[in-house]
Design a protein that fits this description.
The chain has 272 residues and is mainly α. The protein contains 14 helices and no strands. Helix 2 crosses helix 3, helix 5 runs antiparallel to helix 6 and helix 11 runs antiparallel to helix 12. The longest helix is centred in the C-terminal third of the chain and has 16 residues. The protein is globular. The two termini are 40 Å apart.
Length: 272
């Protein structure tokens, strides 16, 4: 990890795998995309992807595939999912785990000229999952949980793969693992484990986990019932855009609960 503090700047090339882990507080970032020419800026072009991909660079194939899948803008102008699928396959064959995940998703949805093939989707996800990619582990777990993509439904396999993803600090996996443990297995030990993963996901800023943790405190599910703690977590989730938590904040203000004043204007603001 590169530790960045307030005001620090990090500059990196497009092929550097990267992410952000916020250990405390909140993250506000100002991001600039630096290009090689004015023409590239005006046209939103990325000619360096083309040349590197043609030379066999798997990272460039992956990046170009993502761009061609989405297009140049929000309207998808310039998208070419068929070419994107070809690039994902080339990179996937070279062992690029992100490309393997994308290729699996293309098969899952029958996108890019590929057939709708759940078995192929699982095969690529499993390859990436066994290489340690948490996103692939999460997708594989969800397929087992839902009995999708040709897999037999298996709570044990779902929990196993979701646990492997959660242990890599994947907050989505932590949240889903908490759901699986609370609904699928049902023993007291699983409830405690469920709440542990829910807490960890909430601490990482996962909105649904924050709302779920608030609900657990509100009704006393695994915690001592505490409406004020519930209100704190509902507010965090609401500020992160969770609509359920926003409704809960409205309800708390409308009834003057959770240490909040009786305030119909605030209630209406959250309901809106």
């Amino acid at each position: 990890f590169v530790h960045l503090m307030r005001g620090d700047v990090a500059v990196h090339q497009y092929d550097l795998p990267h992410g952000v882990h916020v250990t405390n507080g909140r993250r506000y970032s100002l991001i600039f995309w630096i290009k090689d020419s004015v023409h590239s800026c005006i046209t939103n072009g990325t000619p360096w992807y083309d040349s590197a991909a043609a030379a066999g660079d798997a990272d460039a194939m992956m990046a170009l595939g993502q761009k061609l899948n989405k297009g140049m803008n929000a309207d998808g102008i310039g998208s070419d999912p068929v070419r994107a699928a070809e690039l994902f396959r080339c990179a996937a064959d070279m062992g690029h785990v992100d490309a393997q995940i994308h290729l699996g998703t293309f098969y899952e949805n029958g996108r890019g000229g590929l057939p709708l093939d759940g078995v192929a989707a699982v095969r690529w996800w499993r390859t990436a999952a066994e290489a340690g990619a948490s996103a692939a582990q999460r997708l594989l777990a969800m397929a087992y949980a839902n009995g999708a993509c040709g897999l037999l439904r298996s709570s044990a396999d779902a929990v196993q793969w979701m646990t492997r993803a959660a242990e890599q600090d994947d907050s989505d996996a932590m949240y889903w693992l908490s759901i699986y443990l609370s609904h699928n297995l049902g023993s007291p030990e699983d409830l405690l484990a469920s709440l542990k993963w829910l807490q960890r996901a909430a601490d990482m800023g996962h909105p649904e986990a924050q709302c779920g943790l608030g609900a657990a405190h509100l009704v006393g599910n695994g915690f001592e019932q505490n409406a004020e703690v519930a209100a704190t977590w509902f507010r965090c989730a609401a500020q992160n855009g969770n609509s359920c938590a926003q409704c809960n904040m409205g309800a708390l203000y409308a009834q003057g609960l959770g240490g909040l004043p009786l305030d119909f204007k605030q209630a209406l603001r959250w309901y809106e």
